[in-house]
Amino acid sequence: MKKNLFHFVWISLMIFAVSCAETPEKEFRSAEEINQTLGRGVNMGNTFEAPDEHAWGNPWDPEYFEIMADIGFSHVRIPIRWTTPERSMAEPPYTIFPEFMNRIQKVVDTALKNGLHAVINLHHHQELFENPLENRDRFLAQWVQIASFFKDYPDSLVFEILNEPHHNLTPELWNEFLRDALEIIREENPERTVMIGTANWGGLGGLPELSLPDDPRLILTIHYYNPFQFTHQGASWVEDHPVMEWVGTTWDNTKEERQAVKDEFEFAIEFARKHNVPVHIGEFGSIQFADMESRARWTNFLARWFDEQGFSWAYWEFSADNYGFYNPQTREFAMPLKNALLHDPMPEPSDK
Fold it and tell me: Cβ of 276: how many Cβ atoms within 10 Å?
């Protein structure tokens, strides 16, 4: 009896072992599938890309991610400045301090816990933009650490290599740097979806000079703030433009205004088709100095039109001044913007 029991247990264990060996590991989804799942998102802006989390008046609250998920967003983009003296070393080995890495881990974990996909990036890397060659090693060393730290995370975490390359980080240099960073990421994250943006501030203008690596798990990310006189009217940080003279600029949802958007994206749509790469609109938003009716019309048209194109998107942004639509003090939404993003269908164009 004992002998028969032994054989039964042994055979059962062998069958279990074989069945486990034959069960494939869960594969990461394709970039296209990830992009579809990202869907509609929002930026956690003016928080971790600030010099200090509290510096720009919008510190993170874990409740924000619960709210985002509850009202219908599928992902959150988390802009992050890694280069301040309190967050990382400016000299070799360019260590990101554990306290800050753990803080970002908590933020990412909270997003995933609430059912949101998360996009993390390198944001406001001013040293790299001013002196690319001198800061290349630091840029790449940061990605070594970030990619290694998050290597075991599910595919619901997406990496974005760098926000809005510009200035001395020319399109030619950016094409080199992005390949170097992607190669580093791939060492421990061979299947993770990675977003790549354009030089010249991340917009459509830099797309013709972008050289995408041959990698099937990429998403092209583009920022869109046109017409600039409308979205940035009165913006104090914009230099060399008469921003105060722009105050009062409206967006009326005319056929001509809509066609201008479509014309500007024509090359991007063809680029994406040619390179078989999905598109994410990583930022779009209009400033609080514009009238709310125009802001809602512009936001609604873009959100619905991006949906129609199969683009995922992340509105700029959630809870800060200037562009946000949620007030943390009153716990109220700017309902015209919330509805324009998530609920309102696209109306017919204006006859104005």
Answer: 11
283 an active-site residue?
yes
Report which of 281, 272, 345 is spatially closest to residue 313, judged by C-alpha positions: 281
Average pLDDT over residues 277-303: 98
Distance CA 194, CA 161 (A): 7
Q: List Cα–Cα distances, 120 to 75, 77, 192, in angstroms.
A: 11, 6, 12
Could you confirm whether 332 is annotated as catalytic?
no
Q: Is the Cα torsion angle 320, 325, 326, 329 positive or negative in sign?
A: positive
Q: Provide the 8-state DSSP code for 205.
A: G
- For 8, phi then psi, to 5°, come to -65, -45
312 and 75 Cβ atoms separated by less than 8 Å: yes
**Considering the chain, what percentage of its residues have pLDDT values greater than 90?**
92
- pLDDT reported for residue 26: 55
Angstrom distance (rounded) from CA 183 to CA 349:
46
Nearest to 109 by CA among 72, 71, 78: 78
49, 160, 257, 283: which one is catalytic?
A: 283
Q: Which of 160, 164, 257, 317 is catalytic?
A: 164
How does DSSP assign 145-201, residue by residue?
HHHHHTTTS-TTEEEE--S---TTS-HHHHHHHHHHHHHHHHHH-TT--EEE--TTT
pLDDT at position 24 over 60: no
pLDDT in tens, 323-352: 999 999 999 999 999 999 999 999 999 986
Q: Backbone phi, then psi, for 190, in 5-degree steps?
A: -65, -25
Q: Kindly give, in sequence order, each residue whose CB lies less than 8 Å from that of residue 346, ignoring residues fewer than 6 positions away.
A: 300, 301, 304, 305
Strand 157-160 vs strand 40-43: parallel, antiparallel, or unpaired? unpaired
